[in-house]
Amino acid sequence: MLESEPLWQYHAQTYTQEFEMTEAMMAQSNAALIKSGYDAFARGDLQGAFAVFAEDILWHIPGRGPLSRDYRGHAEVQGFFQHFMDLSHGTFRIEIDDILAKGDRVVVLCTESAQRADRSWSSPQVHVWTLKDGRAAVFWQYQGDQQTEDEFWST
Description:
single chain; alpha+beta; Nuclear Transport Factor 2, Chain: A
């Protein structure tokens, strides 16, 4: 504290700095949690991936393809996972390009890829996660090319 600085200003700055540090630590912790889910999925450890998700998670897949809809809870999300793995004969992959976090929101920039018969597909994606009580409560996906993705999963 500077001698010329009023005491209230010193405390306000200290509180603001502590709040910003706490928020940054929470964001870092949330990003690490979400990354652990992706890592578990990549290893084929669905139990580890689902440990990140709230029991009543909302999982939104946009578009008009056979996978497009809202899924609620572990059972529906597990059915969704099984469906795209069946369609791709287990070739579906996610590569994380970057993870951004602020507060209870985590944004994953990634590339998804899969094969179906003689066709290959790869697309940049944005996955937006909202955490509540230390678990992923909402997942919202944004495709790089919605029409191409819908066509890939439909035929």
